[in-house]
Specification:
Blueprint: E1 3-11, H1 33-53, E2 59-62, H2 66-79, E3 83-85, H3 102-107, H4 128-150, E4 154-160, H5 162-172, E5 191-197, E6 204-208
Parallel strand pairs: 1-4, 2-3, 2-4
Antiparallel strand pairs: 1-5, 5-6
Helix pairs in contact: 1-2, 4-5
């Protein structure tokens, strides 16, 4: 099948979070020193890929949150593209945002227990279906923009967050959206590529870990 366009969903790098807070959409959580290295390295990966293909992604955009913006900036610079913000690839909403030990807090706070009533939605945060819908709507729009600018084979980069990226992948692969967070294949600065092909209603998925060697030194908490 002919590839029409590819939208790369990039998870941000490691966050400076010594208190291990579930940071969600909170302001002020930027990249750690290792996270900044990850951002530079994934930018180099995209630059090498562009050199091999003889073309650059047409669009580089990121969630408005600091950690995503800091991850996307070196990518935009390496590809000589302006960095823009896409509000709908932001992290998921989460009622437990700001807690440093969610399990312990829940154990001593029965008033929070009703938030756990339906893990399939999930009841404590933004519904999985809503996350996937906003992510796919943005990816589809950006794909069309890239295709118009670069023609068949055009690419775009969206820097986002683990949970929205993962449920988007589950959605396009036709898998249930409810899941165990430990099962997510979406490591720091990983690249989940949505490959749009002629004749297919949904994109197929490719997955890459440009910074696999750095992951052993990284601290990673599910964002939502």
């Amino acid at each position: 099948m002919q590839t029409l366009a590819t939208v790369h969903l990039v998870r941000h790098g490691e966050v400076h979070n010594p208190e291990r807070v579930l940071y969600g959409r909170l302001d002020g959580f930027g990249l750690s020193e290792l996270g900044r290295r990850m951002a530079v390295d994934v930018a180099a990966w995209f630059a090498r890929r562009a050199d091999e293909q003889g073309r650059r992604p047409e669009i580089v955009a990121a969630s408005p949150l600091l950690r995503a913006q800091q991850t996307a900036a070196p990518i935009a610079e390496a590809l000589d593209r302006p960095l823009r913000t896409e509000a709908d690839v932001i992290e998921a909403e989460n009622a437990f945002e700001g807690m440093s030990d969610v399990a312990a807090t829940l154990k001593r706070s029965p008033r929070l227990w009703p938030l756990l009533r339906n893990p399939l939605t999930p009841s404590w945060g933004e519904p999985y279906r809503q996350q996937a819908a906003r992510m796919l709507a943005t990816a589809d729009r950006v794909k069309d923009e890239a295709l118009e600018a670069g023609g068949p084979g055009a690419e775009a980069v969206l820097v986002s967050h683990q949970l929205p990226i993962w449920v988007t992948r589950l959605a396009v692969e036709g898998r249930p959206l409810a899941h165990d967070p430990r099962s997510r294949e979406c490591s720091l600065t990983s690249v989940t590529s949505l490959v749009y092909e002629e004749g297919r209603a949904l994109p197929r998925v490719e997955y890459h870990e440009p910074n696999r060697a750095l992951l052993k030194d990284a601290s990673s908490l599910p964002g939502a």
